[in-house]
Specification:
Elements: E1 5-6, E2 11-16, E3 22-28, H1 38-48, E4 65-69, E5 71-72, E6 75-76, E7 81-86, H2 108-115, H3 131-147, E8 151-159, E9 162-163, H4 182-197, E10 204-211, H5 225-234, E11 239-244, H6 255-258, E12 262-263, E13 266-267, E14 275-276, E15 279-280, E16 285-291, E17 301-304, E18 310-313, H7 328-350
Antiparallel strand pairs: 1-2, 2-3, 3-7, 4-7, 5-6, 8-9, 8-10, 10-16, 11-16, 12-13, 14-15, 17-18
């Protein structure tokens, strides 16, 4: 199966399936002498793990990471870093009744057509469980970036029809939806409770901001920084749209409104999301990801079997009501990986 590797200078390859023995990642290109322990990586994995929050699945996985290679005495050695997390609470029997049909919204149909075989236990490789490896690798990239005073955060700006009115990052860790607006978070809780009771699911929007990225990151044509950020975020299974900076609002604006004017002290606004001509300009990098509703729902839907016989399906079992907020650290991880990759690439040009 191709397409499991991401990055050029800071390169990762994720592996594993939802109900296999485990999931993980191999990182190649990380410089030596970066402080790295399992505890550092665990901090990010704990924000992604299941079984936490009102929108989360009941599946209980501790997601304890193990560093298999690439470190010595708490420092990276410059050799490939291998990280592993065991699957300990997979219940494959829940999928026995639906293994011979295609679940609407899932990759069952396309995987079967592409490979002629698929792991139907929890979605196999197409499961969001694959993102464990991304978050673990992102934690390594985050540590590398922190040494250069580059930080990455995310927060929920929308869940279903509820959108935040204010952005107060101090509120992110004070509610289960990682929303920067406590009033909106309370409305999100009501929304999720109703959706869960109805046996349905809901989507939302996550905003990611990278602070401290120096100007000069990115390439001018096909490897534009904004193009790679969009690609990285779109590679997450539940993401169906990406905006950079003002995004689609730019289409409604005049040039005089959308242009970020410049003074001797710097840019006067940041509609560009920190990127001009595919290259960072030193302003915060801003991206938003539109997240679709979780496709596994109890509401009955039409589908077909693998033999193309019409039927209906109601997906039982342990599933999230929304990918938010567990997808937030995944979005952060992908941004960390892109920025770290471009930082190392730019270092060969300018040496900073």
């Amino acid at each position: 199966m191709a397409g499991n590797t991401f990055g050029k200078a800071f390169k990762i390859t994720t592996w594993g399936e939802s109900h296999g023995r485990g999931v993980g990642v191999v990182i190649d290109g990380c410089p030596p002498h970066i402080p790295l322990t399992e505890e550092i990586i665990q901090q990010d994995l704990d924000r992604r793990k299941p079984g936490v929050g009102p929108a989360s699945t009941a599946r209980k996985e501790e997601d304890l990471v193990r560093i298999v290679s690439g470190t010595f005495r708490g420092l990276t050695t410059g050799t490939p870093i291998s990280l592993m997390v065991e699957n300990r609470d997979a219940k494959s029997s829940a999928y026995n009744k639906i293994k011979d049909l295609y679940r609407p919204g899932h990759a069952d149909f396309t995987y079967q057509k592409k490979y002629g075989i698929r792991d139907w236990r929890g979605g196999g490789r197409a499961s969001a469980r694959e993102t464990v490896g991304r978050v673990a690798a992102g934690a390594v990239a985050r540590k590398l970036l922190s040494i250069k005073s580059i930080s990455v955060i995310s927060y929920t700006v929308q869940l279903g029809g509820v959108r935040v009115s204010t952005i107060d990052v101090a509120q992110i860790d004070r509610n289960p939806f990682r929303a920067p607006d406590q009033t909106a978070a309370a409305e999100m809780a009501k929304e999720v409770a109703g959706i869960k009771k109805a046996g349905d699911s809901i989507g939302g929007v996550v905003e990611v901001i990278a602070q401290g990225a120096p100007p000069g990151l990115g390439e001018p044509v096909f490897d534009k920084l904004d193009a790679e950020l969009a690609r990285a975020l779109m590679s997450i299974g539940a993401v169906k749209g990406v905006e950079i900076g003002a995004g689609f609002k730019a289409a409604e604006s005049l040039g005089s409104e959308n242009n970020d004017q410049i003074s001797p002290d710097g840019f006067l606004s940041n509609n560009a999301g920190g990127i001009l001509g595919g290259i960072s300009n030193g302003e915060p990098l801003i991206a938003r990801a539109a997240v679709k509703p979780i496709p596994s729902i109890e509401t009955r839907q039409q589908t077909v079997t693998i033999d193309n016989v019409a039927t209906e399906v109601s997906v039982k079992g342990r599933h999230d009501v929304s990918a938010i907020p567990r997808i937030n650290p995944v979005c952060e991880a992908m941004v960390c990986l892109v920025v770290a990759d471009f930082y190392l690439r730019q270092k060969t040009i300018r040496g900073f």
